[in-house]
Amino acid sequence: MEGRKFCGKMMRQSKTTSTSQYETAVTNTWDERYDKEGSSLNEPASFLKEHIHRLPLGKALDLAMGTGRNAIFLAMNGYEVDGIDFSEVAVKKVKARAKRKSLAIHSLQADLTHYRIAENSYDLIVNLYFLERTLFPQIKEGLREGGMILFETYTIEQPRYGRPHNPDHLLKPNELIHRFSDFHIIYYHERVDEGEEGPKAIASLLAQKGKGVKP
User: Fold this and answer.
1) Which of 70, 113, 138, 157 is deepest in the core (most CB within 10 A)?
2) What is residue 23's predicted lDDT score, i.e. its pLDDT?
3) Is residue 87 within 8 Å of residue 31, measured between CB atoms?
4) Domains of the chain, with CATH numbers?
């Protein structure tokens, strides 16, 4: 990077400016996507729907919630939900939908690369089609005893079938199950899923924090 040629204050300013410009570009991209999306994605993720009967009731956290299809589904099933997303447009849409339906959803706009999950606060944490590896220990600490993590996202095989292509956003083989090896694994599956929109390479996990488990 060009900024590395400088030192001290000038280097820090260069990095700060670059980071700020990048974050602004990313925010604008997601805001535009969600603004165009409307309410087209109303159905919750299949993995969440399939396992809702196994999940502990209480307080839930939806990471990278988008326009709230999973947060709304959880709230309609009796959960008090905290939902976080990088896009201000998405958060506004969730707030409006929750208000119309009188649902218990607290929506927050935040950058999850810097966000801190409150410790011992959730009975359920949902992470669907989003990968920020620094959150793994926070997810463990954020769950209460007996709480569950429901996680599904793309694996390193995904570029064969479409986006995303960046390996930083893709799970390595067995990475997800190893990350939660100190939890009770209820369900785990790595596969190429032949969905209606075409094949996608994903890993799905449902795991529980139990007594004696150290986050």
Assistant:
1) 70
2) 47
3) yes
4) 42-208 (3.40.50.150)
Task: Name 185's bridge partners.
Answer: 207
> Between 69-76 and 88-101, two packed helices, what is the crossing angle to 10 degrees?
20
CA distances from 133 to 114, 172, 195 (A): 12, 12, 26
Compute the distance between CA of residue 175 and CA of residue 153 in angstroms, rounded to an integer: 11
Q: Which residue in the block uniquely carries the two structure tokens 């820090």? A: 12
For residue 56, give the amino acid letter: P
CB under 8 Å to 151, separation ≥6 — which residues? 126, 127, 128, 176, 180, 203, 204, 205, 206, 207
Report residue 39 as tokens: 């309410």
211, with CB counted inside 10 A (0-12, 13-18, 19+), is exposed
Q: What is the pLDDT of residues 137-180, one digit of tens each?
A: 999 999 999 999 999 999 999 999 999 999 999 999 999 999 99
